[in-house]
Amino acid sequence: MRTIEAIGDLQECLKHYRNQGKTIALVPTMGSLHEAHLQLVDKAKTFADVVIASIFVNPTQFAPREDFDEYPRNPENDQKLLEGRGVDILFLPNIAEIYPANQISDYDVGSIGALLCGVSRPIFFNGVAQVVARFFDIVEPDVAVFGEKDFQQLKIIKQLVERQKRKIEIISLGIVREGDGLAMSTRNKYLSDSERSVAPSFSKILRQAKSNYENGLAQEDIISRAKKSLGDLFELDYFEILDANTLTQITTSSTDVIIVSAVKLGVTRIIDNIVFRRLNV
Ligand code: PAF
C-alpha cells in the first residue's frame, strides 16, 4: 500500500492505473478506523480493480462547538489496518491540500439536508457535500462506497452525484454492528463503561419499534412509546418513521420504511436506523 499526501502525487499514480485500464474505487473516511470501515474496503474491492481509502477529518462538517479537536486520530494504526485489508493507496491529505484558498464552500444539500440531523447540525451536510465533491474532483473514482448508518448523508451524496451529473456509482454497505447490536462508530470511543452498557438499548428500541410497526400498531403509538423508552435512557434528538426513499412521511405509494433516530448519551451523539420493506405493497 502506498501512502500519499499530495494531490499531484495521487493523480500521477492514478493516471498510471487508468492507463492500464483499471477501475478505481474510493472509500472516504475520517480515520480512527473500525471493522465497519474495513468492510467498506472489502465491498470496494468487489467493485473495482484499485481501492483508495482517504483519511481526512473534515473541519467544515463540524460546528464550532462540536468535537473536531477531540475527534480520535490514529493514522499509524489506520495504515496497518488498511494495508492488512488490501487497500492499494491511502490518501492522507492535510487541510491546506483539500481547502486551498477560493474553494467553493456552498452546496445545495436540498430539502433532505434540512431534516433530521440537519436540524441539530445545520452545517454538517453542507460540509460533507463540500468535502465529498472535492474528493470526487481529485480522485474521479468509478465507484465510491459509504455506510448506511448515516442514511441521510448517503442520500445527500447520491443526490449530489445526480445533480452534478458525475459518472460515479455510489455503493452502500448496511450497518455493521457490535455483538450487542450497537452500530459501530468511531464516536463510540467517547462512551464511558457505564454509557457503553446502556448504548445497545438504542438499537433494541428501534428493533422494538419495527416489530410494533409490523404488528400493525398505529404509527403515533409506536412513536410515542419509542420516544418514551429513548427519553428514559438518552437525550432524544429525533425519532421518526419515514419513507426510506424520500425521507418524508409514509404514503400509500411508499415501498420502503426507515425508522431513524439520533440521541445523545453523555457527550456522545449516536445515530442509528432500520430500513425495511413496507408491508402490503
Ligand atoms: O461518514 C464520514 O465518515 C464522513 O462524513 C465522510 C463521508 C468521510 C466525509 O467527511
Tell me the radius of gyration: 19 Å
Q: Gap between N and C termini, in Å? A: 48 Å
What is the chain-wise order of helices and strands? EHEHEHEHHHEHEHHHEEE
Major beta sheet, strand line-up? 1-4-3-2-5-6
Which cofactor or ligand species appear?
pantoate
Structural class: alpha/beta
Query: What is the CATH T-level topology of the largest domain?
Result: Rossmann fold
CATH superfamily of the largest domain: HUPs
What's the number of helices?
10
Most strands sheet: 6 strands, parallel
Specify the CATH architecture of the largest domain.
3-Layer(aba) Sandwich
Q: Provide the domain count.
A: 2
**Unreliable runs, pLDDT <50, ≥5 residues?**
none
Main CATH class of the largest domain = Alpha Beta
Strand content: 15-25%
Detailed description of the structure:
The longest helix has 16 residues, at 124-139. The model has no long low-confidence stretch (mean pLDDT 97). It is globular, with a radius of gyration of 19 Å. It has 281 residues and is α/β, with parallel strands linked by helices. 39% of the residues lie in helices and 20% in strands. Strand 8 and strand 9 (268-277) form a beta hairpin. The termini are far apart. It folds into two domains: 2-173, HUPs (Rossmann fold), CATH 3.40.50.620; 186-270, Pantoate-beta-alanine ligase, C-terminal domain (Pantoate--beta-alanine Ligase, Chain: A,domain 2, 2-Layer Sandwich), CATH 3.30.1300. It has ten helices and nine strands. A six-stranded parallel beta sheet has the order 1-4-3-2-5-6, sandwiched between helices. It has a three-stranded antiparallel beta sheet with strand order 7-8-9, with helices on one face. Pantoate binds at residues 28-30, 58, 61, 128, 131-132, 150, 153.
